[in-house]
Amino acid sequence: MNITLQVNGVPRTVDADPRTSLLDLLRERLGLIGAKKGCDHGQCGACTVLIDGRRANACLALAVAVDGREITTVEGLASGGELHPLQAAFIEHDAFQCGYCTPGQLCSAAGMLGEPGPSAVTADLATDPALTPEEIRERMSGNLCRCGAYVNIVSAIREVTS
Q1: Going along 16-136, which residue ranges are E strands?
Q2: Buried-most residue among 87, 115, 125, 158 (CB within 10 A)?
Q3: CB 78 within 8 Å of CB 87
Q4: pLDDT band at 156, cuts 50/70/90?
Q5: pLDDT grade, residue 26 (50/70/90)?
Q6: pLDDT value at 67 more than 90
């Protein structure tokens, strides 16, 4: 099937098998290897991208299901040679070790910043809570880091939100 995607601001038309995941399309057909194949079951978050600005596990999304949508990968976060504020904060706070999860962490954090409303740890569900370390940890809980850089990841995200 022919599908058309807006990938990192660039329109792309690709002939894709209906069974192809968005992750495989991005990595194997479009050469965008930032999103990683970790578990391939939607459990680790290494493949997180933004679909129309919302976080999604690319390993679980079929490419044909996102026809006509806007996809942002870690390669598309920077703009005009300038790092995204989250990318700069991750560097400043040493928020990565091996780096395998970092693209997913960055995309998830970028999507999280645009998601208003309470989470499972919000005390008052009628308010839009401040992004405290507890809120950030809860909202980022779908992205795993085998190296354990969580403290620095939370610090980096806090810097961008304050």
Answers
A1: 48-51, 54-57, 70-72
A2: 87
A3: yes
A4: very high
A5: very high
A6: yes
- C-alpha distances (whole Å) from 92 to each of 68, 104, 155, 159 are 36, 18, 10, 10
- AA letter at 62: L
Q: Report the alpha-carbon distance of residue 33 to residue 30 in Å, rounded.
A: 9
Q: Per-residue pLDDT for 15 more than 90?
A: yes
CA-based R_g, the chain, Å: 16
Residue 16 Cα distances to 22, 39, 145, angstroms? 10, 22, 31
Please report, for the domain that includes residue 131, its CATH number.
Answer: 1.10.150.120
Residue 150: domain span = 85-161
* The pLDDT of residue 93 is above 90: yes
Which CATH number fits the domain that encloses residue 45? 3.10.20.30
Number of domains in the chain: 2
Is the confidence at residue 128, as pLDDT, over 90?
no
Are residue 68 and residue 23 in the same domain, yes or no? yes
Same domain? For 32 and 70 the reply is yes
- The CB density around residue 85, as the number of other CB atoms within 10 Å, is 15
